Amino acid sequence: MTGVQTCALPIYTLMKKLKICLVSLGLFPDQRDGSAFVARGIYDELKRRGHDVTCLTAQWGEGFEDPNIIALKVVQSRFFWMPQFLFKFRKFLKTHEFDIIHGNGSRGSLPIIFSGKPYISHIHDLGPFETNFSKLPFIKWLELKNAKKASKIITVSEIIRQGIHKVMHAPLERIQCVYNAIDSRYKPMPEQARELKQKLGIKGPILYYVGRLAFYKGIENIIEAFYKVKQHIPDINLLIGGKPEIKLVDTVEKWKKDHPEVQFLGPIADEEMPVYYSMADAFVTYSFAAEGFGLTPVEALACGTPIICSTMPAYQEILKEHAIFVEPKRSDLLAEKIIEFFKNPDLRQQIMKNIGEFLQRYTWKAFGDQIEAIYSDFLETRA
Question: At what angle do helices 249-258 and 219-230 cross, to 10 degrees?
Fold first, then answer.
C-alpha cells in the first residue's frame, strides 16, 4: 500500500546534534488543538535527542516558563495576530542562524516564508480548500505560497500528501508522510475512570467527544444523534470536552441552554485526559472537513475506548478496521450506528482486536526517527 510505504521512512539517528528553530502559531498546552500538540511533541522529542531547539510561538494564554520557547503575546483575534507574528519573528530568523528551520503549518511558516531562508514545513490538512474557513483569500494564498516555498513538506497521512500535490501543486517527491504520535501515558485507567464517573454522578453508558469545538467538527450532529439514541437507550450520557473557537462561542452557549442533558465539560486538564477516555463506553468524532490525521481517536483507542467516527478519508487511513465509520452530516445514521454498537457487544471486540500492534506505529520514537531522517536528507540536499 502506497501510504504505508511512504510513511515508513528508514529509521535513522543523526550523529550530529543540530541547531533547530521550530516556528508554530500555537504550542501545547497554551493552545490545545492537534497542530499545537504535534508542535510541542516535535519540540520535546528533538530536545530529548540532544538537539539545540528554539521554538518561536504566539502566546494565547499563560505562556511558557521554558527559556527556549520564545512566546510573543499577540492580539486575541482571528487575523490581527498576523502583523505581530510576521514581523517580530521574521526579524529574529534573519538575525539568527540555524541548521534547520521547521514551520508548523502555513500560518506557523508565515515569518519563515518572508525571511528568505530555506525551511521545512508541516502541513496538517487541506482545511482552507475543503470548507469555507474564511472569506478572505489570504489563507488560501498563504497555503499555496508555503507549499511552493518550502524545501520539504511533512504531512500526517497519505491522503493529505496526495491532496497537497493535487490542490497545492507541490511535487510528490518534496512531500513526505510521517504519522503523528501519541504519548505513552494514554492507556486504560479503569479504577480512576470508575472514581471519576462516581464523582460526576453519572449512571449509564457514556458517549464522549473531546477536541476543538469548531463548526466543521459535527458537534451539532452528535447532539442530534444523542437525543435519537436516548429514545432507545434512556440512560445514555453525552459528554463534550474542549474549548470553542472564537466564532463558535455564542453557539456553544446556546447549546448549553438548549440541551441541559448534554454535559459540556470545557477544557480537560492534560493529566485527566486518559481518565476521561477510559471512562467512556464509546468515543465519537464526526468531522466533515479539515481532518488530516485525528489524534483524539488514536488516544481513545490507546485507553481502551472504541471509536465511532465520520468517513473522512484520513480517519479511514489512520484507524483502518479499528472504528465504526459513518457518513458525515447524517445525524440519523450516526444514531443508528451508536444504537447498533451498544446492542451488539461483538462490535467492541472487533474494533479493539490487535490494538497493541496497531498502536506501535504511533510512538514518539518512530516519529522522531523519521523526522531526523528528513532533516538529514534536507541538509544533504542543501550541501
Answer: 10
Question: pLDDT digit string (tens) for 320-335?
Answer: 999 999 999 999 999 9
Beta bridge partners of 264: 240
**Predicted confidence (pLDDT) per residue in 277-287, tens digit:** 999 999 999 99
The partner residues of 103 in beta bridges, in order of sequence, read 23, 121
Q: Give the model confidence (pLDDT) of 18-53 as tens digits.
A: 999 999 999 999 988 889 999 999 999 999 999 999
Write out the DSSP string of 24-38: ES--TTTS-SHHHHH
Cβ atoms 165, 148 nearer than 8 A: no
- Cα 283 to Cα 50, 205, 265: the distances in Å are 37, 11, 15
Helices 331-343 and 219-230: angle between axes, nearest 10 degrees: 50
> 10 Å Cβ neighbour count for 190?
12
Cell output for 381: 540536499
Name the region of 294 (left: φ>0; alpha: ψ -120 to 50; beta: rest): left
CA distance 166 to 176: 14
- Nearest CA to 113 out of 129, 97, 90 is that of 90
What does the alpha-carbon distance between residue 318 and residue 136 come to, in Å, rounded to a whole number?
32
The DSSP symbol for 329 reads: T
Q: Contact 301/322 with Cβ under 8 angstroms? A: yes
How far apart CA 249 and CA 260 sit, in angstroms, is 17
* Other residues' Cβ atoms within 10 Å of the Cβ of residue 59: 17
Candidates 359, 284, 366, 275; CA nearest to 326 is: 284
